[in-house]
Task: structure prediction
Amino acid sequence: MTKESIRFVGIDPSTKTGFVILDSNGEVVVEEEIRATATKDPARMIGIAKQIKSYLQPNDKVVIEGFAYGAKGKAVDFQYGLGWLIRAMLFTEKFGYSDATPSQVKKFASNRGNAKKEDLVLPLYKKWGYEHHSDNVRDAYIMARMAYNIYNHAGLQKYEQEVLSKMIKPK
Result:
């Protein structure tokens, strides 16, 4: 496996799933908000998982956002179902993946684990020159950066190193 063959993937599972792939140099290859084409579950979940799978290549390294255990509302059961379906697909297809909690994603980008989504816009632009209209895609970008930095440690801040060291290791 050469450095050129490794890509770094971030997935923010939701009804509008944020999905980003970085190449071996950390440049954006794919940035998309994946939406279901079906209207009923579990077909919606399966459709999103299939779209994700269609982008993946054998050596991709993935970081997927963990569950927001305190979340409430109608979409929570969908997010849990989709999150587990994507993880099962990654596991079955033998893709290495790590989980990042929502607070780890925020802290990696801003050094604040309790930052609001809108508070991440400026740090993303200042740190990486990245901007996108979708907060789901922005979160996926942060996770793709986390995946990249698991394998490329140069220039990391202490708080970024702390986040990566506490993440659940690749499966």
